TrEMBL record:
It comes from Acidithiobacillus ferriphilus. Its EC number is 2.7.7.7. The record marks 24 as: Substrate discrimination. Keywords: Cytoplasm, DNA damage, DNA repair, DNA replication, DNA-binding, DNA-directed DNA polymerase, Magnesium, Metal-binding, Mutator protein, Nucleotidyltransferase, Transferase. This is DNA polymerase IV. Poorly processive, error-prone DNA polymerase involved in untargeted mutagenesis. Copies undamaged DNA at stalled replication forks, which arise in vivo from mismatched or misaligned primer ends. These misaligned primers can be extended by PolIV. Exhibits no 3'-5' exonuclease (proofreading) activity. May be involved in translesional synthesis, in conjunction with the beta clamp from PolIII.
Length: 359
């Protein structure tokens, strides 16, 4: 059943999720017309263990995607054009996009440089449809930035985000409350917010593959298997997500987490994995224009026991080498199932941190 409150039309929230298409690559194609229509990969050096930050949709046809090694991307598509990121250009485009979104409601919650949730419930109170706002936003973004965005419109964050992903690139999908359950039913559980690879594996061992399977599992069984998270799974399988759109969410840390299908035992593999994770954190820090002094890592064992270690340095840390340097001695000697590197930003490296907006 959808959220009980959805029975009263006036209580239904109108949430829009906007996500730019192939963001870094699209900025490159906009600024360099000769790259349009071509497989463009933005990221690290294929000759030097770099990873793909993103790629154009032309490159995606070759099976290339974010977080893949650049070397693998080059083997899949030797004619691809590799570019180093130009973060300042992406931040400029992001500021422009977020500015457009804030014309429609102050309730804009940026999730990264290229995506945000908007709560337009108040803006639609006088009869304007949320889908009209979403259409106008997409048109304005294209006209004013020369870039395309996809949007999803629904009654909560969970569904709005799934909807924006559905018609990518350059698409729009509305999932009204009466279609929420049917829309969710066939989706693989891995599409749901908070369901990572380890959870997908655990759910499949319980015979749960789709959201409909998840909906048919009992609340008790899910709580017994996953604790408090089981209750979240129970609710999202029913399209229930009460998370508010939080415009001024203060970012407490920037981090990334990976769950492995098998335990990591080999120190060399652990170190290589840590380097990859540190690289992703460094990219995000740079994307957000932030730096930090405290780096922490977390390791979780197969029995869910979790250890964390943190190091605070006198210098600000913001690039991969420094992250790895500090994270390495902290992480040694822990065979682990989940690894997470996280850095707490400090004010000072960039103007953005002091403002309300992280973009
Ligand atoms: N990004 C990154 N490293 C990743 C994932 C993303 O540096 N592992 C950066 C590059 C992306 C931007 O963040 O352009 C936005 O991420 P998205 O996941 O929204 O991906 P895109 O916008 O590139 O593609 P799309 O949203 O069309 O799937
Ligand atoms: Mg995007």
């Amino acid at each position: 059943m959808p959220d009980q409150r959805s029975e009263k039309a006036s209580d239904v929230r109108k949430i829009i999720h906007v996500d730019m298409d192939a963001f870094f690559a699209a900025v490159e194609q906009r600024d360099h017309p000769e790259l349009r229509g071509k497989p463009v990969i933005v990221g690290g050096d294929p000759g030097d263990r770099g990873v793909v930050a993103t790629c154009s949709y032309e490159a995606r046809r070759f099976g290339i995607h974010s977080a893949m090694t650049a070397a693998r991307a080059r083997s899949l598509c030797p004619q691809a054009i590799f570019l180093r990121p130009r973060m300042e250009a992406y931040r400029d485009a992001s500021r422009q996009v977020m500015g457009i979104l804030r014309c429609y409601t102050p309730l804009v919650e940026p999730l990264s440089l290229d995506e945000a949730f908007l709560d337009v419930s108040a803006a639609t109170a006088d009869g304007v449809l949320a889908v009209q706002i979403a259409r106008e936003i997409r048109a304005r973004i294209e006209r004013e930035t020369g870039l395309t965005a996809s949007a999803g419109v629904s009654y909560n964050k969970l569904l709005a985000k799934l909807a924006s992903d559905w018609r990518k690139p350059n698409g729009l999908l509305v999932v009204p409350p009466e279609h929420g359950l049917a829309f969710l039913a066939p989706l693989p559980v891995g599409k749901l917010h908070g369901v990572g690879p380890a959870t997908v594996k655990k759910l499949s061992s319980m015979g749960i593959y789709t959201v409909l399977d998840l909906r048919n599992a009992s609340r008790e069984a899910l709580i017994a298997q996953f604790g408090k998270t089981g209750l979240w799974f129970y609710e999202i399988a029913r399209g229930i997500d009460r998370r508010p759109v939080q415009p001024s969410r203060q970012r407490k840390s920037v981090g990334t987490e990976r769950t492995f299908p098998e335990n990591l035992e080999d120190p060399k593999v652990m170190l290589a994995t840590l380097q990859q994770i540190a690289g992703q954190v460094a990219t995000r820090l740079q994307a957000l224009g932030l730096a930090g002094r405290t780096v922490s890592i977390k390791a979780r064992f197969p029995d869910f026991e979790t250890v964390t270690r943190a190091h605070t340095d006198a210098q600000t840390i913001w690039h991969t080498d420094a992250l790895c340097l500090f994270a390495r001695p902290i992480g040694q000697g822990h065979p682990c199932r989940v690894a997470c590197a996280r850095i707490r930003p400090v004010a000072g490296r960039d103007r953005e941190w002091s403002g309300q907006s992280q973009c």
